[in-house]
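WARN no homologs supplied; continuing
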Amino acid sequence: MSTRTLITGGLVITASDELSVDVLVEDGRVAALATRDSHGWTADHVIDASGKYVIPGGVDAHTHMEMPFGGTLAADTFETGTRAAAWGGTTTIIDFAIQPKGGTLAEGLDTWHEKAAGRCAVDYGFHMIMSDVNESSLKEMDTLVSSGVTSFKLFTAYPGVFFSDDGQILRAMQRAGANGGLVMAHAENGLAIDVLVEQALARGERDPRYHGEVRKALLEAEATHRVIRLSQVAGAPLYVVHVSAREAVAELTRARDDGLPVFGETCPQYLFLSTDNLAEPDFEGAKYVCSTPLRPKEHQAVLWRGLRTNDLQVVSTDHCPFCFKGQKEMGREDFSKIPNGMPGVENRMDLLHQAVVDGHISRRRWIEVACATPARMFGLYPKKGTIAPGADADIVIYDPHAAQIMSARTHHMNVDYSAYEGKQVTGRVETVLSRGVPVIDNRTYAGRAGHGSFLERGICQYV
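OK structure emitted
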């Protein structure tokens, strides 16, 4: 049966417009937009959005649900993680399937399909982590692109786990240049970092703050420069994930000024947190161990400027939560054994709205970096990332005036701490539709595991 929902009275904000219009949703898609006095629409359900924003559902292009790391597993499952995403106004995630060492890309993808199928509250797609680049896996890249997995992550970090050498990265970039795929790079010089880790531990430097000190900004910048030049040689586009250092932003800016198809992502933790958090006493700093690491506060201004000037295009979370008790504590005597990762999938849209309130970015830029650009970058636009006729009705009713205090006591992520504990922000999700179906209904969870569908993605729309 056909179902119609009318969203009336709100301010519709997309990456390009702010319009005082009503939105008609029919059969899971946006049917039309019109000023309130120009239509006579009737609907089965009416949502009064007076005084609220009506925005596209967020697209978080970087999550790690149930990811194995360092002998443990990320604490959020696809069920708990996508539910938390919905609470935070995110209606699409793109997670990372992992090629097993010595195995095929297809084996990794099948494993992640099994984890996610029938469990997600919102829609989801996959990138593929290539941990074993060889002739066989290079050929498989073509197959994955044709089946809607169109992006491939390679690491200059984590020797012995995910690390690929320059020759392997170049070969993958060449293949992506030919088949339309997009290579994503974790850019840190992992071989050099391992030397610094070994030396720090030998000196007895074991606290969490040393995680940030050994993963130096210059080593992020060096690896960023290197993967940019490799992509230039390959004639392929490049997306650098979780950019945290001003020196790395400078490398991206220079490349983009030269007209190269190079893109950069940063994350809320780098915009709002710093090495001060890593240095918190009594091992509390372990909560903030992630890679790339948190940087000194002066890096934040450069990241905000990069977002304003479009030298950074996307804000994702790199959501990879590990509980403090029993997981982060694995590294009490050795910072290198602290699982790398932080929770954040529920916080991103609210933190970025706070950035609007604080004057760092505009309302439309908020939607651009959190919804529209990630959808375009990863072949989902205009199905996702906007409110326009024909788009999926992934729509958030957002109260820009509500105050909230972020806390582990009230969040919905399956992790025992909040990286933003006690932080007061202005703005809060009120209602969330995923393909026209309420997932959050006036601050009540109305979703279900299995509503979320797998998204076959097209290729990057910026190249």
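The chain has a mean pLDDT of 98.
OK
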